[in-house]
Amino acid sequence: MKFVLDASVTLSWLLGDAAAREAAYVFSVLAALRARTSAAAVPMTWGLEIANVLARGEAKGQLNEAQSEAFLEMLQATPIHVDADTSAQALGGTLQLARRYRLSAYDASYLELALRAALPLATLDEDLRHAARKAGVKLFKPTRAPR
């Protein structure tokens, strides 16, 4: 199953800052991707969000460059497709969603992609989850990989 993956889930794989219930969810998403039972789509903004957190984390001494590089290698080995049409939607659909649901343009880009591609959304962000529900976007529920 394909789904839209947001930065909050992705970064929890590195930072481990999710609460227990959320941690189970984020690692089940990762397990589904690694097992190739699912594939993720992300807007172009996703890479910038990941890079920003890595650069800031390194600058603050929360992680080092080797940790960042190992994380990036793991992401490159994961079935994540970057949507090429994010920019084309930015000043239209994405902006409208940001206005309607009072989201940042970054968060609205995930919702826009989920709506346009008719895909469920994997996120830990409560505002984005709420907006997705109101917009009729399902939240991604990973299935267990066969053993």
Question: How does this structure look, described?
Answer:
This protein has 147 residues and is an alpha/beta fold. The chain has one domain: Rossmann fold (3-Layer(aba) Sandwich), CATH 3.40.50.1010. It has helices spanning 7-15, 20-34, 45-59, 65-76, 86-101, 105-117, 126-135; strands at residues 2-5, 39-42, 80-82, 121-122. Strands 3-2-1-4 form a 4-stranded parallel β-sheet, with helices on both faces. Helix 6 (105-117) packs parallel to helix 7.
Entry summary:
With 147 residues, this protein is α/β, with parallel strands linked by helices. The protein is 61% helix and 9% strand.
Q: CATH-wise, what's the superfamily?
A: 5'-nuclease
Q: Cα distance, first to last residue? A: 18 Å
Number of strands: 4
Structural class: alpha/beta
Strand line-up of the largest beta sheet:
3-2-1-4
Q: Count of helical segments?
A: 7
What percentage of residues falls in helices of 4 or more residues?
A: 55-70%
